[in-house]
Amino acid sequence: MTAPAVGLGPQRVLIAMPGCEGATMRLATPLSAELGHAAVTHFPDGESYVRLYTPVHGADVALVCTLDHPDEKLLPLLWLAIAARERGARRVGLIAPYLAYMRQDVVFNAGEIRAAEHFAALLNPAFDWLVTVDPHLHRIAHLSDVYRMPTIAVEAAPAIAAWILTHVQAPFLIGPDVESRQWVEHIAGICEAPWATLVKTRHSAWHVEVAELPSIPPGCAPVVVDDIISTGRTMLTAAGALQRNGQPQPVCIGVHAVFASDAYSQLCAASAEVVTCDTIPHPSNRIALTEPLVDAVSHMFDLSLPSSRQMLV
Ligand code: R5P
């Protein structure tokens, strides 16, 4: 006789880190996962405090934590991963729609560090798998070059292309730098639209220049697409150059709405519309990536991985 399931803990548990409650709720139902509850706060002296309330013994647990402003999020995230493991979780995965530090992928000046690699080294012992969206893979070609766990990088291109197809007539896609070619070419292929990339020179975080503007046929609507909008200077400079070249204000689309300082208001003033994917909650979010994230996380839940890792943190 088969033992009744009564009394067994949940099979799949998603736990939101602060700020990721919305994304976690959107993912839970299609993943047939229970929403877990945890306190993530600070002691009066500033040290992080976590407490996991939901029983997770034997469960596949995933923490949902988009990693913009990563420094303040990292330690509580690691503490909660430890809590899940100490409470007997079968596996602990990380759903980080935005993965931080990927742009620090090389030592430019003596004394700097390749932070992408060291950030990965902090997450590697804590998690069994990682799902993210379009990490900034440039000088690091694959996530597996730095992440020592199964990873899936969800592509935002199909969802961005679907948005463009329903909102922009006769789009001409522009990548503001050579790195953006991977997204622009993919999206343009789906939209069957012409595309080009500019050549960008970054002098500092807040000062970039672009060159090699394409000639855009009359009647086409310029759409600038990039992975990350941080200072917004890449997009702003591209939008300004297009306008000086006689083009209308472009639609500006970013995957990750990092938006430092005044970037969003400046970009709104310089473009026809500012649109982002929902990897970081922001008023510009128009493109939902729930579906491809659910596919990727389902795959991770179904993967046959070792049931427990030695916690090294
Ligand atoms: C750079 O390699 C990225 O693809 C983006 O172009 C860059 O991160 C945008 O940064 P910002 O908004 O600060 O110009």
Q: Can you describe what's shown?
A:
- The protein has 313 residues and is of the alpha/beta class.
- The chain has 8 helices and 16 strands.
- The strands form 4 sheets. A 6-stranded parallel beta sheet has the order 2-1-5-6-7-8, with helices on both faces. The chain has a 6-stranded parallel beta sheet with strand order 10-9-13-14-15-16, sandwiched between helices.
- The protein starts with 11 loop residues before the first strand and ends in an 11-residue tail after the last helix.
- The N terminus is likely disordered.
- The site of ribose-5-phosphate has 15 residues, from strand 13 and helix 6.
What key attributes describe this structure?
single chain, 313 residues, alpha/beta, six-stranded parallel β-sheet, 26% strand, globular, binds ribose-5-phosphate
Estimated structural class: alpha/beta
User: How would you classify the quaternary structure?
Assistant: single chain
- Give the distance, in angstroms, between the N- and C-terminal Cα atoms: 42 Å
Tally of DSSP β-strands: 16
Discrete helix count: 8
Percent in strands: 25-35%
Report the sheet with the most strands, covering strand number, pairing sense and barrel closure.
6 strands, parallel
Low confidence ranges: 1-7
Overall form: globular
Topology order in helix (H) and strand (E) letters: EHEEEEHEHEEHEHEEEEHEHEEH
Radius of gyration: 21 Å
* Fraction of residues in helix: 25-40%
The main sheet orders its strands as 2-1-5-6-7-8
Mean pLDDT: 94
Present as ligands are:
ribose-5-phosphate
